[in-house]
C-alpha cells in the first residue's frame, strides 16, 4: 500500500512524497529532498534525527533516545520509524555543519623537499613533440606518427593511449600544425613499463607554466586538499572542509553502518566526492586553473574512508575478523573514481596496513620521518581511532585503539569541534575553583573542543574538583560543582555568558567518556612498547600527528595521562602528517614507493584479540594512571598542589 | 527565430518540433523522431531523402536530384533544404532495409583449427581458487588474499583488477565460502605482463561449461558475429545483419560525410553498436547464454568502420593524403567501446594497413592462408573498396581501388542486395535474345543483385546485345533492346512478371557503372602485379573473399574482365574471410599476433597517386579488356559465338 508523507520544515517549506507501507521516515525524507542528519549513521543511537509526527500513523521500532514526554508530543526517530498510513511530519531545525573552509586553522607552512627534482623524481611529464606532416608518400596513421615522435624525440618506447585521446588526436595534431605538447605518466624506475598518455595540447605549452597535481587527505572529520605545481614542487593552494559524510555518521563505524543500508554506500560515496570536488574547484579558482588541468591526485585516508570513496563495501571492516576488501587499491583513472581532475589523470590511493591502520598512517610515517629515525620513536594520530606506530628505520609496529570521538567533541554533552565559539583552553583557580577560558574567535562560548576538554580535565583534577577516578567532588565548596541530571558536574560557563543562554558543563558521563578515550590511546602505547620489550619512557621522541594535535597543551595532556610523561622537547606536533605524506608521494615516485614499503614493513598488533590491552586500558582509566610512578612530573605537581 | 515544423508520414503519424531558422529538414526530422533515410550520407546526391513541403517556406540549397515537376509539387531534399518559416512536411514511405538475419545465405561451415589447444593458445582462462578464510590471526585484505591464491595455485604472479571487481569481490568471496572461479586474460607469450582479472564467480564453475567469446566483422553492408566456445573452440552461433549505418550512407565515403556533421559521428557510432548488440543478443539467446557471459570480442572491419565504431573522426580518411587516426587501436574494455559483452571484457580491434586496406583484409590474409602460401597468390575482396593483396609467405603488396558499390546493387537502376527477390543469375538466348533468370527465394523478381549483374553483363556481351565498349546494340532485332530514358537498355523482366509491375532493365548508365567497377578492380590487380614485376597470369591461385564472392560465376566474371583469365581450379571462393580471421585471432593469441605481423609486412600501394593505375583502369573499361590477348578463353568464346 502507498501512503502520502508530507514534510514541513522550520522555515515552512513543505515536500510531499508517496511511499509504500513500512518505508523508513529517513528514506521518505531522502526521496522528498529533505535533509535529516543522521550522525550515528541511522542506528537509533544519537537521537539527533528526531522529527515530530503531527498527523497519521507511524510505527516506532526504537524510542531509546526519546523521553516519554517526547513520544507523547509525537516525536519519533526518523531512522527508526516506519510509515503505516498517510502522515504529516514536522522536521525541526537541523544541526548545521558549518561549511566554511577551515584553512584559517589548518594552513601549514610547507617547504618543497630540498631534494625535489622534477626531471628525476616526477612521474608526470610534459613533452614537446614536432611531428612530420603526412604526405601521399608518408601515409602512416596519426597515432603511429605520434608514437614515432615519442620514440625519436623523447626516447619513450612504449606509450599507451585512451579511446578518448584517439577520438581527439587527429584534430589536436592538425590544430597545432603537427606541433604538440603531451602530458604523460611514466614509471621512473621501470622505463620499460608502458607510459600513459594523459593529454595532448596543440602547439607548445610554455615549459615553465604550472603542471598541476593534488594531494588529498580524507579525514573522517575534515578533508584537506593541497594543489601543487609539479614543476617547482610548490604547494600553491591549501583548502580543507568538513567531510560531507558527517551528516550520515560522525565516526567510521556509524558510516559503515549507514553505507550498508540500501543506497547508503552510493550516498556516502557521493557525499565525499562532492566535498573533494568542491575543494578542488575552490583551490583551482585560487590559482586560476581548471580542475581538468590537474593531472594526478594522491589520496590518503583511513581504510574506511578509502573504501567509501571507491564505493567498496566496508562491512567486513566492522565485523570480526575485521578485514578490508583492499589495503592497496590499484592505480585508477579519475573518471572511474569520480574525482573531477583530468578524466584520464591517475588517482593513486596510498596503501594502508589493516582495517584500522590506513593510508593516513603510512603517509604520516613517511612525512613524520619516523621510518628513517635512528632511535626508537613513537608516532600517534590522536583521533577517533588512535592509531599509534612505534619504531625506527629498522622496524615498525602499529596498532589502533578505538578511542572514540570524545576528543573531537562527540559523546560529550557540551563538546564541539574546534571552530568559532569553542572553548579551547581552561584554567581553574586553586582557591576559588572559578574558571578562566579562551574561546576560538573570541565572543560567547558555544561549547568545548578537544584541547579545551583536555585542559579542563587536567585543571579539574589538579584542583581537586574531580578525583583520580573521575568522581566529581560535590563537597568542594563551589557553586560550580553540583549534582546535574547526569550525575555530578562542573559548570565552565554560566548561561548568562554563553551563546545559547544555557550553562556549559562537564558532567560525570562526559568525564567517563574522556577517560575511556585517553585510556585507550595510552593503553595502545603500552601494548606496543611491551610487544617489542622497550620501556615507553625510553623512546627518543613522540611525534603527534593530526591537525588537532597542534593545539594540545602537552603539560595538560601528560597530566591527564593521555601522553607519556617525558620532557617536553621530546614531543613534536606535526599537524596533518597524512596530507603531507600524500604531497611527498605526489612529488616523488620513490617516496611513493617508500609508502608501499612502510605498509609492508609495519607489523600490525590487533588489540581486540589481546588481553594485555584490556589490562593496560583498565589501568589507564585513572588520572593520570593507576601507577602514578609512570607519571613522575604529575606526581610532583600533585605534591606541590 | 523559431519555427514550427509539422511532419506527417504515410501512415498519418504526425510529429511537431520547434526549430530555429535555417535548420536543415533532416535535422528537424531527427529531433522529431521521424526517420528519413540518407543513403548518400546527406550530400544531396542520391535524392532518396525527398519530402514534400505541403505548406510554408523552405529554402532549397540543391535540387540537383529533383525534376522541375518534383519541385513544382513541393518536393525538396531533406538533407539540402532549410526551414525559413512554419512548415508542414509530408514524408513519403521510406525504403525499408529488411532487418532479417541473413544467416540463410551466409552461414559458413567452420571447422575448429586442428592445432587449437585451449591450454596453450587461449588468452582467456577460467581458474578455480580455494582461499584460506581470514581469522583474527590472519587479517590480510581480500584482494591480497586473492592475489596470494593466484600466485600459489595458478602460478600467476601479477594480476590486475578493476574498481568494479573491488566493489563486488568481498561479497563474491564470502558467497562462495572462499572458493571462487576467476576469469582472467593473460598475454601467453609474456608471462611477466600483468594478467587482467575480468570476472569472479562464487564457487566452482564446471570446467567444461562454455567460456564465451565472439568474433565480429563490421562490413559496410553486413555485420557478422560468431559466438565461440573458447574451451572447445567451436563456433556455436553465426548471425549476420545489415549494418544499421546504411540508412545514413551506403558507402564509406557517404558515411564519413554524414559522420562529419554535427552529431553525425555519435549517430553513426550508435547505429553500428545497436546492430552489434542486437546480433549479440540473438546469438546468445540461441545458445542460452547472456551477453555479459561473453568475455572477449575480436573485431575486423575496414578502417572507416573501425573509426566509426570507436567514435573516432574519420574525415582525414576521405581527404588527401588519406590518413587514418589509428590503424591499430589499443586493446579496450567493452564498457569503453559500448559493446554489451562483459563490461570488463576486452574488445580487440584488429590492425589495418591504411585508410582503404583495413583489418578486414589483414584478417582475410590470415584466414585465407595467403600469408603462408609458397607460391605467388592473389587475394581479392570484391566489394565497394576492391581491396587486393598479392604475395606469398615472403612478401605482400596491397592496394585498394575505389570500385564503388555497383556490384552491391547501388548506382544501378534496378540493382539490389542479394536478398529475397533478387535476380542472381541470367542466361540470354543467342538466337532470340530472350533471357532466362533465377530469383533468390523464387517468386517475382524485384531487382538484380551483384552476381546477377555480372552474369547479365557477360551474357549481353557474348550475345551481342552490347558491344565491348558497353554500347547497347539497338539494331539487335529484339523488343528487349530499346531506347530508354537513360539511353539504350535491355529488358530483363517485363512488368507483368515483376513484383512492382514495372520492367526490370539494365541501362547504358548501369553498364557504365558496372564497367567502371570491374575496371577499377582489374586495374588494381594489374598495378600490383606490375609493382612486383610478376605477370598476373602466373599467380598460382586467386582467393576471393567476401560473402558476395561465393555466388559469382567464375566463367562470367572472367568474361566481363572482372577476374583474370585462368583455369577455374585456380580460383577459390572463401566466403567471409574477415570474420573467419577474427575467429582465428579470438581463439589463438599467436594467430592474433600474426595479423599484426601481416599488417606490418604488407606494402601499401597508393593508387590515387599512381598514373599507371589510371592507364590500367582505362584499358580495362572494355569487355573484357582493351587487350583481348589477356583473356584467351574469352577470345575463344567470342570466336565460337
Task: Report what the structure shows.
2 copies of one chain form a homodimer. Chain A is of the alpha/beta class and 641 residues long. Chain A folds into 4 domains: 2-91, Ubiquitin-like (UB roll); 96-349, 2-Layer Sandwich (Nucleotidyltransferase, domain 5); 361-405 and 522-640, Nucleotidyltransferase, domain 5 (2-Layer Sandwich), CATH 3.30.420; 407-514, no CATH class. Chain A is built from 19 helices and 29 strands. In chain A, the strands form 7 sheets. In chain A, strands 14-13-12-15-17-16 form a 6-stranded mixed beta sheet, sandwiched between helices. A 6-stranded mixed beta sheet of chain A has the order 28-27-18-19-20-29, with helices on both faces. In chain A, helix 16 (577-587) packs across helix 17. Mean pLDDT of chain A is 92; it is low at 98-106. The interface between A and B is large, with 46 and 47 residues.
Amino acid at each position: 500500500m502507498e501512503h502520502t508523507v508530507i514534510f514541513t520544515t522550520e522555515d515552512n517549506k513543505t515536500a510531499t512524497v508517496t511511499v509504500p507501507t513500512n518505508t523508513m521516515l529517513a528514506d521518505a525524507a531522502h526521496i522528498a529532498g529533505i535533509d535529516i542528519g543522521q550522525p550515528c549513521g541511522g542506528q537509533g543511537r544519537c537521537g539527533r534525527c528526531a522529527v515530530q509526527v503531527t498527523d497519521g500513523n507511524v510505527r516506532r521500532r526504537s524510542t531509546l533516545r526519546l523521553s516519554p514526554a517526547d513520544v507523547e508530543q509525537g516525536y519519533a526517530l526518523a531512522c527508526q520509524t516506519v510509515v503505516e498510513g498517510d502522515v504529516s511530519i514536522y522536521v525541526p531545525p537541523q544541526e548545521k555543519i558549518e561549511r566554511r573552509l577551515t584553512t584559517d586553522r589548518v594552513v601549514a607552512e610547507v617547504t618543497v623537499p630540498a631534494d625535489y627534482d622534477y626531471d628525476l623524481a616526477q612521474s608526470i611529464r610534459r613533452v614537446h613533440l614536432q611531428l612530420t606532416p603526412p604526405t601521399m608518400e608518408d601515409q602512416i596513421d596519426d597515432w603511429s606518427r605520434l608514437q614515432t615522435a615519442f620514440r625519436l624525440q623523447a626516447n619513450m618506447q612504449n606509450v599507451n593511449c585512451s579511446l578518448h585521446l584517439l577520438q581527439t588526436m587527429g584534430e589536436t595534431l592538425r590544430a597545432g600544425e603537427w606541433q604538440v605538447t603531451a602530458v604523460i605518466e611514466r614509471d621512473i624506475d621501470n622505463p620499460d613499463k608502458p607510459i600513459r598518455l594523459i593529454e595532448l595540447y596543440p602547439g607548445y605549452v610554455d615549459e615553465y607554466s604550472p603542471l598541476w597535481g593534488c594531494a588529498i587527505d580524507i579525514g573522517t572529520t575534515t578533508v584537506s586538499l593541497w594543489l601543487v605545481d609539479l614543476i617547482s614542487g610548490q604547494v600553491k593552494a591549501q583548502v580543507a572542509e568538513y567531510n560531507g559524510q558527517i551528516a550520515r555518521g560522525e565516526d567510521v563505524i556509524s558510516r559503515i553502518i549507514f553505507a550498508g543500508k540500501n543506497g547508503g554506500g552510493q550516498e556516502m560515496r557521493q557525499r565525499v566526492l562532492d566535498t573533494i570536488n568542491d575543494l578542488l574547484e575552490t583551490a583551482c579558482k585560487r590559482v586560476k586553473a581548471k580542475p581538468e588541468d590537474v593531472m594526478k591526485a594522491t589520496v590518503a585516508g583511513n581504510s574506511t574512508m578509502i573504501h567509501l570513496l571507491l564505493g567498496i563495501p566496508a562491512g567486513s571492516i566492522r565485523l570480526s575478523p575485521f578485514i578490508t576488501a583492499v589495503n592497496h587499491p590499484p592505480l585508477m583513472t579519475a573518471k572511474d573514481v569520480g574525482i573531477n581532475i583530468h578524466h584520464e589523470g591517475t588517482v593513486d590511493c596510498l596503501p594502508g596496513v589493516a582495517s584500522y591502520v590506513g593510508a593516513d598512517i603510512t603517509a604520516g610515517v613517511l612525512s613524520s620521518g619516523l621510518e628513517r629515525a635512528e632511535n626508537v620513536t613513537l608516532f600517534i594520530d590522536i583521533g577517533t581511532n588512535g592509531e599509534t606506530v612505534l619504531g625506527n628505520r629498522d622496524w615498525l609496529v602499529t596498532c589502533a585503539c578505538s578511542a572514540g570521538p570524545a576528543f573531537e567533541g562527540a559523546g560529550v554533552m557540551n563538546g564541539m569541534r574546534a571552530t568559532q565559539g569553542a572553548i579551547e583552553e581552561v584554567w581553574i583557580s586553586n582557591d576559588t575553583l572559578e574558571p578562566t577560558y579562551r574561546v576560538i574567535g573570541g565572543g560567547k562560548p558555544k561549547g568545548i573542543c578537544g584541547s579545551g576538554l583536555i585542559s579542563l580535565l587536567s585543571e579539574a583534577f589538579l584542583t581537586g574538583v574531580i578525583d583520580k577516578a573521575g568522581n566529581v567532588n560535590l563537597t568542594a565548596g563551589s557553586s560550580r560543582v553540583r549534582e546535574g541530571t547526569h550525575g555530578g558536574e562542573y559548570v565552565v560557563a554560566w548561561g548568562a555568558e554563553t551563546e545559547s543562554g544555557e550553562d556549559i558543563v562537564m558532567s560525570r558521563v562526559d568525564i567517563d567518556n574522556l577517560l575511556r578515550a585517553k585510556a585507550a590511546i595510552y593503553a595502545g602505547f603500552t601494548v606496543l612498547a611491551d610487544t617489542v620489550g622497550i620501556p615507553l619512557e625510553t623512546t627518543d621522541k613522540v611525534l603527534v600527528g593530526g591537525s588537532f594535535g597542534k593545539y594540545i597543551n602537552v603539560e595538560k595532556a601528560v597530566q591527564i595521562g593521555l601522553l607519556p610523561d617525558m620532557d617536553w622537547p621530546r614531543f613534536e606536533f606535526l599537524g596533518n602528517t597524512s596530507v603531507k605524506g600524500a604531497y611527498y608521494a605526489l612529488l616523488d615516485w620513490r617516496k611513493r614507493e617508500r609508502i608501499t614499503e612502510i605498509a609492508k614493513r609495519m607489523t600490525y598488533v590487533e588489540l581486540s584479540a589481546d588481553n594485555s590491552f584490556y589490562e593496560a586500558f583498565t589501568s589507564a582509566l585513572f588520572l593520570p594512571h593507576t601507577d602514578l610512578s609512570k607519571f613522575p612530573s604529575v606526581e610532583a605537581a600533585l605534591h606541590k598542589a
